[in-house]
Design brief:
The protein is an alpha+beta fold. It has a single domain, classed as Nuclear Transport Factor 2, Chain: A (Roll), CATH 3.10.450. It has four helices and six strands. Helix 2 packs antiparallel against helix 3. The longest helix is centred in the first third of the chain and has 25 residues. The protein is globular. The protein starts with a helix and ends with a strand.
Amino acid sequence: MTAMRKSRLIMALALVTLSAAIKVEAQQSPAQRVETAFKNYVAAWKGKDVAALRKLIADDYMVMTPSAELSTKDKELASVQSDPPYDEMSVEEIHTRRFGNSAIATGLISASGTDTKGTSFNYEGRFLAMLVKRRGAWQLVATQSGPVRR
């Protein structure tokens, strides 16, 4: 196969993939789009995908950590890299409310993995997230979370 033919094939595949992604988003309800944005944030955090997190988290992002500390986008991006690897991390429950180009998401996240000392951990936490739609994409502007006490 010639280089030109490979190039055309790659472009065609990229267009088909983009077209499918646009079609899926168009089929989602407004609430589902907010849910998808938050779930993408959780997946990027689990995968330590800093490039994706930079897009999903607004520059003016602020967070109240489970230990009641205030944090910023830059601090959170630095902390994702130092977090222990997660075996699992998922959104178990999510509820959203939209207010025009703003939305609130609440729910439950579960995570498990092994800390730096080799000890297994399981985490279940409730979250509250504020998202804003900017330039056609949902971004997190504020979050707060804490462990579930059972």
